[in-house]
Amino acid sequence: MTCSACSAHIERTVGNLKGVQTVSVNLLQNSMSVEYDEQALDNNSIIKAVQEAGYNAFVSSGKAQANSNTAAITGGTAGSAAVPGSDPAEQEIKQMKKRLFVSLLFSVPLLYIAMGHMLGLPLPSILLGPENALSFAFTQFLLVLPIVIVNNKYFLVGFRSSFRRAPNMDSLIAIGSAAALVYGIFAIYRIGYGLGHMNLTLAEHYAMDLYFESAGIILTLITLGKYLEARAKGKTSEAIKKLINLAPKTALVIRDNQETEIPVEEVRVGDILIVKPGGTVPVDGIIVEGNSSVDESALTGESMPVDKKAGDRVTGASINLAGTFKFQALKVGDDTTLAQIIRLVEEAASSKAPIAKLADRISSYFVPAVIVIALLATTVWLFRGYPFEFAFSIGIAVLVISCPCALGLATPTAIMVGTGRGAEKGILIKSAEALEIAHQIQTVVLDKTGTITEGTPRVTDIITDRETAGLEDKELMRLAASLEKSSEHPLAKAIVEEAERLDLELYPVEDFQAIPGRGIKAILNNKKFLAGNLNLMTENKIPIGNLAAKANVLAEEGKTPLFFADQDKVLGIIAVADVVKATSKAALDSFAKMGIEAIMLTGDNKKTAEAIRRQLNINRTIAEVMPQDKEREIRNIQESGRKVAMIGDGINDAPALTRADIGIAIGAGTDIAIESADIVLMKSDLLDATAAIQLSKAVVRNIKQNLFWALFYNTLGIPLAAGLFYPLLGWKLSPMFAAAAMSLSSVCVVSNALRLKMFKPENKYQGEITMQKTKTMTIEGMSCLHCSGRVEKALNALDGVQAVVDLDKKTARITLEREVSEELLKNAVTDAGYEVVELR
């Protein structure tokens, strides 16, 4: 296939077969996806239909087996079918390079002989003068023959398509250059006749109107354009190649109690594999032994390494940075995350956007119209009394300049580069249609838990009543965690995890008792303690004093205040909440900047929902929504005439994701949510949702630029080639310049699409986003609590640093909320009078 007329013809031919349900032909990838009824049709029948249309095809390896009634067909020319499994882009570049070399080798001397004497350049005497007109013409004929032979594809495909009443770009080139060749051969006979009859004037006249150089240069320039286009097209699929190259070739597996290196294809579910430092995780699985730090940036776009321990999942293609670990294979082969990402990106690149179907329809009528215009232009100039040579060159110029390849490339190149760039940023777009629709979104509906918030409760505030209890924050946390350790409640778990983060040693607890709907009570150091809500305090006649007002403020902020008391008095409050993600505010501000209305949909109570709405400046919230009602709420918004995107992560979000015009699944979500969505965010970062919409806008803008250029070029080029401006301005386009202009238009369209590789989300808040990173510092010289206090104070004085010092272990656990150099951290401790032994 060489232009959108080709792809449209194949699509129409296969679409007319009985049993075909859907068909999508991709010009850029030389591929076709067909969904059909296997009771009525098979792959061979589809391939036969393609061959009868004038092309060749074979079933693409690897895809056909995935689904028995969905065939992925890859195309090749009738004369040279591509080898299954090989890279079509690389093959095309190699073939074009060879054709271009031969074409240039013969077209340079051809042009020199044909035009050189006009510029005063020297020529051999046997080619000069009317008496040598025959050798002058025949030499040009011999030089143009290799160019025609090496580029015979244009003639084979072009004429075959014309005979089947489906002319395409090759048809225009074939008719134009063949006409020039035939006229040149006719001129040789006329020269021979003139010389035989001693009519040197006749011989000289035809020697100056051979058109062999036009045919040769047209084919050479078209091939040059095709070569540059093939190279550019090769670059559009770089993202997919990079993903494929991420997959390791071998894996280290334990079999029969021995370490064995095997091809990754032989790994089975349940195998125990070893990954050493610097190694690549071969498949998806769960760690059973060891811990490490893993770089998942190639899959998620997240630059920070992720700490992994036993029980954590690891993903194939991520890189092990530190320790050795063993893991059990859970997903292998085509089931791995990487394989699914590659499949999604390929499917998106090969799918067709609605705007592309419009371009295909235009192309299917455009080529026959151009042939008619060329014939009319030639006839009109002849009737106006102009020489045949003049009218003939006008016809050839119209045919050559009008090739619609730029029109056919306008959409698929932008879509392939756009989806590839999205994949590099951790944004997987499942179809070209989703990519196009996303730019029209007017309202975005967001699930709260796991989308706007972290999805897991965390300690947010510690408030002690120092007047009555006399406790420090850390001591209250230690006491609270000791009480809550035996509880199964999610809020209790948040308190215990905070104590572990602070490296607090817990007290032993006796007589633990959970009180449903209230809290817990237990004995600690022979003393009764209570932990729970306000009702528990009231029922046990514990006065809470001025903490009541503070508890109300926390509740208004959407947090859950937990009271802790001994048998006589309240000790303090620890607030727990499902905290808002660091990037959610920036993302919602970005939606507002784009003019997109944000609506939060949650099953939580109205008070919590309202607190988060105020905090993030969300347009409106719909609270206390049952899971089954989310889809209905989306439908209500759509019925008001707005384009809606739904962003969610849970199983209960799947119906709403499907109902929305665009469903966006957050990467940490469930498989069902991801399956229901049109766009998948590999990271649990709401900013990526804004980036996806910005990418859609950039791609659609790029497509419109490409279509404008292609249509504007033809709108301007055809009248110029037809000689419309000749009577007024004396402008006449040579067929050679027409060929150059046509090639340039295709190269411009592909080059413009490649600009999308530089796409960066417009987000002025990125500098404020904090990505936490933890370091451990070993310190020499601390001997008492005053020492550890000084070190802790020195480190915490640094901007973006939170440090907790453990005197017994002689270490400081440092949490960085922004990039801080190791030198700055070390200097802070050294200046306080202590020695840094290690920082890791």
Report on the structure:
This protein is an alpha+beta fold. The strands form 6 sheets. The protein has a 7-stranded mixed β-sheet with strand order 14-26-25-24-15-22-23, sandwiched between helices. Strands 6-5-7-13-8-11 form a 6-stranded antiparallel β-sheet, with no helix packed on it. Helix 4 (133-150) runs parallel beside helix 8, helix 6 (169-196) packs antiparallel against helix 8 and helix 17 packs across helix 18. The chain is elongated and about 130 Å long. The relative contact order is 0.08. The model is unreliable at 62-69, 77-85 and 765-772 (pLDDT under 50).
**Spatial shape:** elongated
In the predicted model, the low-confidence regions spanning at least 5 consecutive residues are 62-69, 77-85, 765-772
Major sheet: arrangement of strands = 14-26-25-24-15-22-23
User: Biggest β-sheet, characterized?
Assistant: 7 strands, mixed
What Rg, in angstroms, do the CA atoms define? 36 Å
Please give the number of β-strands. Answer: 30
If helices are DSSP runs of H or I spanning 4 or more residues, what is the number of helices? Answer: 30
Through-space gap between termini? 57 Å
Q: In which range does the helix fraction lie? A: 40-55%
Class per helix and strand makeup: alpha+beta
For the residues shown, what is the average pLDDT?
Answer: 80
Kindly report the oligomeric state of this protein.
Answer: single chain
Beta-strand fraction estimate? 15-25%
